Amino acid sequence: MNGPFLPPEIPPTVYAPYLRRASTPAPKLPVPSNECHLAVEVRNYDGEDGCGILLETDDGNLLLVGVPPRGEPLEPGTRISIGYEHMKNYQGANCANADVVIRITCKRLLRVSSGLPRPVVCEAYDKPSQWLHDLAKSYSATYITRFPWDGGRYIYLLESPNGQYLYDCRGYLICKPRKNCLGFVKDFSKGVVIYEG
Q1: Quick check: 6 pLDDT over 70?
Q2: Which domain holds residue 140?
Q3: pLDDT digit string (tens) for 65-94?
Q4: How many domains does the chain have?
Q5: How big is the CA angle at 136 (ends 130 and 139), to the nearest 5 degrees?
């Protein structure tokens, strides 16, 4: 057959849902500490009860930062480790979705922003979903290879004329050109090519 051919179907990106306290109970709050002991995702809850930036713990707590921390502003999509204390007499805007208002006493960057509006739900993509497809086009990638990674997750190696880019299954950049991105791959035999450009 000589065409014309339809373009390949691109699966939509599935994003992590927003937590809503009106429908989900709050887990027990972590114990406050001044040490950078608690890993959180910085998420933008604009439009969700008017909360703006909230810190989401791995257990599902939602923390509202009452006073902006020193240094770099909180950027949605980053993962940070914090020390904090509860903040009493908070006078800011009401956020019914937050479990507690805190003051950050210690902050350490664990992972840079994905550039995506919300973290992506981890999936074993057999063909690139929209976020991976957009990356492939922007990098002029010739191949995307999926490899297994820690905790039953996956990483995606994009090979482009400029070098290799490595993303985890939630859209976070792990490695970019001028670094040895293949060093993160533990078993090359389990690689699956999911895209050829």
Answers
A1: no
A2: 130-196
A3: 999 888 889 999 899 999 999 998 888 777
A4: 2
A5: 140
Task: Say if residue 101 is exposed, middle or buried (CB neighbours under 10 Å; 0-12, 13-18, 19+).
Answer: middle
Q: Give yes or no for a contact between 151 and 58, defined as CB atoms under 8 angstroms apart.
A: no
Of the three residues 80, 111, 142, the one that is the final residue of a domain is 111
Same-domain check for residues 107 and 134: no
My answer on whether 39 and 106 are in the same domain is yes
In a domain? residue 3: no
Nearest to 195 by CA among 148, 151, 160, 153: 160
CA-to-CA distance for 174 and 181, rounded, in angstroms?
Answer: 8
Q: Which two tokens stand for residue 160?
A: 């482009």
Residues 39 and 103 in one domain: yes
**β-bridge mates for residue 147, sequence order:** 155
- The secondary structure of the chain as a DSSP string is -----PPPP-PPPPBPPPP-TTTSPPPPPPPPEEEEEEEEEEEE-TTSTT--EEEEETT--EEEESSPPSSSPP-TT-EEEEEEEE--S--S---TT-SEEEEEEEEEEEE---SSSSPBPP---SS--HHHHHHHHHHT-SEEEEEE-GGG-EEEEEEETTEEEEEETTS-EEE-TTS-GGGG-S-GGG-EEEEE-
Residue-level pLDDT at 7: 67
Asked whether residue 58 is domain-assigned, the answer is yes
